[in-house]
From TrEMBL:
Belongs to the cysteine synthase/cystathionine beta-synthase family. Residues 16-310 form the Tryptophan synthase beta chain-like PALP domain. Its cofactor is pyridoxal 5'-phosphate. Transmembrane segments: none annotated. It holds the Pfam family PALP. This is (African queen) hypothetical protein.
Length: 326
């Protein structure tokens, strides 16, 4: 039987599934005044916002010749960047090794290894499972840099790679601007590498300097706000490392909002029960901060606050299991 001709909509690979995530209104959780709009970044193929920067950093490295086709890649990760890189490297044919603190949820290691990457879990220095400190990150970094030296693999270096923030200037910011019909009153985001906040806020401020750009920090670990670190252990994995990241720029920051672990747990539950979305801790922190901002009276009554649902709740588990050890 002859096929009828017609238009098709077929993606060439998982790379074409990255970005262009839907923007959803959280009207059941926050009926007003004002509105909270959230980018569904958990719908990226690596189940987090980090797919965007993974694709951009690897693509640019290939374009510049810093990375050659088929060459091995190595990165230090808290998990989501590793999952994003695993998606990109699987499709483009790069062997990938990742070092990650053993304190980060093991689901992330399982995810990375399912995509063909090798995940080396580095023992914690001072944190506990689910609570990763700067010292733990440094231990994973030390191991990763040693492996780069030994293997000659291309080091992605997300914390210092300008292509990280450029990914969000090129994609996240423009998508938000388009999806809201150019109506954004505030943008709220947690900070890990600071790539998301730096790139997105730069784009939005260029479009409208009056957009209020807010950083979310865990209570007791608020270096961007200028506070001493009193609580390095918190639930926001991949965020709030207790230092001002190198990619962070104060130029587009209007204010910071602090969130406690207890509040974040409550909002993680609320987002699930009210909106039918199972998200991670930084996503809950973002939504909570958006609520706090709207409650503060600092915005006009009918303000639209845009934030991000950074990853899926499926990336978190309370019980560690065995994966590749150091």
């Amino acid at each position: 039987m002859a096929h009828t001709s017609g238009s098709t909509d077929i993606k060439a690979s998982a790379l074409e599934l990255i970005g262009n995530t839907p923007l959803v209104a959280l009207d059941r959780l926050w009926p007003g005044p004002g509105r909270i709009l959230a980018k569904c970044e958990f719908m990226n193929p690596g189940a987090s916002i980090k797919c965007r920067s993974s694709l951009h950093m690897i693509t640019k490295a290939l374009e510049s010749g810093a990375l050659k086709p088929g060459e091995p890649v190595l990165e230090i990760t808290s998990g989501n960047q590793g999952c994003g890189l695993a998606v990109v490297c699987a499709v483009l044919g790069h062997p990938l090794t990742l070092t990650m603190s053993a304190g980060n949820s093991v689901q992330r290691a399982i995810h990375m290894e399912a995509l063909g990457a090798k995940c080396v879990r580095v023992p914690q220095v001072e944190g506990t499972y689910g609570n990763v400190t700067l010292a733990d990150v440094k231990a994973a970094e030390e191991k990763g840099l040693k492996m780069v030296e030994e293997t000659g693999a291309y080091y992605v270096n997300q914390f210092n790679n300008e292509m990280n923030s450029d990914a969000h200037y090129d994609t996240t910011g423009p998508e938000i601007w388009r999806q809201t019909g150019q109506r954004v009153d505030a943008f709220v985001a947690t900070v890990g590498t600071a790539g998301t906040f730096t790139g997105t806020s730069r784009y939005l401020k260029e479009k409208n300097p009056n957009i209020v750009c807010v950083v979310v920090e865990p209570e007791g670990s608020e270096p961007i706000r200028g506070c001493d670190i009193t609580k390095p252990l918190h639930l926001l994995q991949g965020s709030g490392y207790g230092c001002v990241p190198n990619l962070f720029k104060y130029d587009n920051l209007d204010e910071t909002i602090s969130v406690s672990d207890e509040e974040v747990l409550e909002y993680k539950k609320l987002i699930g029960e009210k909106e039918g979305l199972f998200v991670g801790y930084t996503s809950a922190a973002n939504v909570l901060a958006a609520v706090k901002l709207l409650q503060s009276g600092k915005l006009k009554k009918d303000a639209w606050v845009v934030t991000l649902l950074n990853d899926t709740g499926l990336k978190y588990t309370p019980v560690p299991t065995e994966i590749t050890k150091v």
